[in-house]
Amino acid sequence: MSTLPPWDPATFTERLLAKGNRYHIHHPFNVRMQQGLLRPEQIRGWVANRFYYQVCIPQKDAAIMANCPDRETRRRWRQRIVDHDGDETNEGGIEAWVRLGVAVGLTRDELWSQQHVLPGVRFAVDAYVNFARQAPWQEAVCSSLTEMFAPKIHKDRLASWPQNYPWIEPDGLQYFRSRISLAERDVEHGLETTLAHFTTREQQLRALDILQFKLDVLWSMMDAIELAYGECG
Ligand SMILES: O=C(O)c1cc(C(=O)O)c2c(n1)C(=O)C(=O)c1cc(C(=O)O)[nH]c1-2
User: Fold this and answer.
1) What is the predicted ipTM?
2) How far is the C-alpha of 191 from the C-alpha of 200, rounded, in Å?
3) 90 and 178 Cβ atoms separated by less than 8 Å
4) Does any ligand 1 atom lie closer than 6 A to the CB of residue 146?
5) Which domains does the chain have, with CATH numbers?
6) Which residue lies with its CA nearest to atom 14 of ligand 1?
7) What is this enzyme's class at the first EC digit (predicted)?
8) From the CA atom positions of the chain, what is the Rg in Å?
9) What is the whole-number distance in angstroms between the Cα of residue 53 and the centre of ligand 1?
């Protein structure tokens, strides 16, 4: 057991942020996507596979709520499910992702049937959902903190895709636009919970491991996608 004193909140936050160097933004497949080097069928492969992540996120968030006895947390957390599933006033992120799919040349049926979802992507995403089902809810909250790094990846796509992939209908990029402020809001809550729960050095180190697990989920998805659709695919 570590006998070192806990990091203060600012230092702990810095340590969490430093994990950004392992984010899938740096994965070779993402780098090539960002440089405009991917062919349409490669973009389609990524979009069809990422759809599996999109549809599983609300189940992951529902698992966190199911494990959380704190009413205040559930009040805030349930918004995440609405963000993805939608409601009477908002079509939701899953539908926005379907629109992205259609904009890149996939059909709704192709997406919903999950016919393109690779075994490695399914394993990685399922590992994330299972973690949320089984871990203490604060640990599952911590695992969502890869969203700290997501606004940049969404902004990068919005800035470069219109020039790099002019064949993609720009309306299809709405999903990325919508996620920037939602991710920032999610991170505020996720960090608040993480800073309050992981207070000893040993716990803080555990939080870094949890964040690494989630970074690995995203990285593994990219590995599987690259193997199937990359230059050797
Ligand atoms: O496009 C991306 O690279 C990316 C990454 C992540 C992430 O870092 O987990 C999320 C999203 N997008 C996203 O759109 C999203 O709604 C989301 C929810 C979560 C989560 O863990 O609860 N991550 C992410």
Assistant:
1) 0.96
2) 16
3) no
4) yes
5) 9-229 (1.20.910.10)
6) 179
7) oxidoreductase
8) 18
9) 8
Mean pLDDT of residues grouped by 10 in the chain (233 residues)?
88 98 98 98 98 98 98 97 97 98 98 98 98 98 98 98 97 96 96 98 98 98 97 62
Looking up tokens 């970074």 gives 215
Helix (H), strand (E), coil (C) string for the chain? CCCCCCCCHHHHHHHHHHHHHHCHHHCHHHHHHHCCCCCHHHHHHHHHHHHHHHHHHHHHHHHHHHHCCCHHHHHHHHHHHHHHHCCCCCCCHHHHHHHHHHHCCCCHHHHHHCCCCCHHHHHHHHHHHHHHHHCCHHHHHHHHHHHHHHHHHHHHHHHHHHHHCCCCCHHHHHHHHHHHHHHHHHHHHHHHHHHHHCCCHHHHHHHHHHHHHHHHHHHHHHHHHHHHHCCCC
**Ligand 1 pocket mutation, candidates 16, 17, 57, 143, criterion most atoms within 8 A of CB:** 57
